[in-house]
């Protein structure tokens, strides 16, 4: 372990997160830096993560592992809702998407076993198509259906309760 850094975050993990963010493409954040602009600060061979951790990726790794990383504001964009009205969508910067992906890559395997098997949203190896397949099978087994949508669900979650659950299952301080 490098004693100069209080948090052990591997450079390879940051580089792998960068490759995932780059593959997803995505819009510019509030800093108006595109993934192409972010790439201009990378050096060397795309397959050599030590060479590529120069510039933007090195700065991000250094800030995360030293505990001095703070996410910048997100860009708010209004998008129309199918039933009328608008929904505010937050677009993080490229570097913040990479930082979030680093955390996701470590936290997700720790909490995944605690989710209900019928939970399909934002889960690895599960999709809306999988949920439809299960619903189709169950339609033949049961003669009733419950359809519900919790309006503003994520807007109304108790943040303290969510953080309590995270602290229970994730014992890695920098997350």
Molecular structure report:
- This protein has 7 helices and 2 strands; from the N terminus they run ααααββααα.
- With 175 residues, the chain is mostly helical.
- 45% of the residues lie in helices and 7% in strands.
- It has helices at residues 11-24, 35-40, 49-52, 56-66, 94-111, 128-141, 159-169, and strands at 75-80, 86-91.
- A hairpin with a 5-residue loop joins strand 1 and strand 2.
- A two-stranded antiparallel sheet has the order 1-2.
- The model has no long low-confidence stretch (mean pLDDT 87).
Question: Which key phrases capture this entry?
Answer:
mainly alpha; two-stranded antiparallel sheet; 7 helices; globular
Helix-strand blueprint:
Layout: H1 11-24, H2 35-40, H3 49-52, H4 56-66, E1 75-80, E2 86-91, H5 94-111, H6 128-141, H7 159-169
Antiparallel strand pairs: 1-2
Helix pairs in contact: 1-4, 1-5
Short description:
With 175 residues, this protein is mainly alpha-helical. It contains 7 helices and 2 strands, in the order ααααββααα.
Give the termini separation.
18 Å
> How would the global form be characterised?
globular
In terms of structural class, how would the helical and strand content be classed? mainly alpha
Radius of gyration: 20 Å
